[in-house]
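Attaching the record inline, Q. Sequence:
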Amino acid sequence: MGHRPPSIPDFRSPVGARTALRSTGFDSLEALLDSLFERIPPAAMLVGDLGLMEGEPPFDGIVIGAGGKVIGYHQDAVGLAPIAHPQIKAAWRL
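Structure, as predicted:
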């Protein structure tokens, strides 16, 4: 799709994930996604767009728009599940 995300080393823990993210030169997933994609208002999300839900600090949950719902991993959902009425704090058009 014309996007080249930075390489991120393998990680197996929250500390490893934070270290891997910082190795890309960004302190947050929001900043990393801002560098890659066009930001849009969360209400404008279409099927396939990315959203960011507030997560357990310091991690947020990346979700994919699914027509009025989102699908993704989040501490409030069990496994990969559709989340109705999500609280999206940022969104990006792919």
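The beta strands are 38-40, 50-53, 61-65, 69-72, 81-84, 88-93. The CA atoms of residues 47 and 66 lie 5 Å apart.

More tomorrow.
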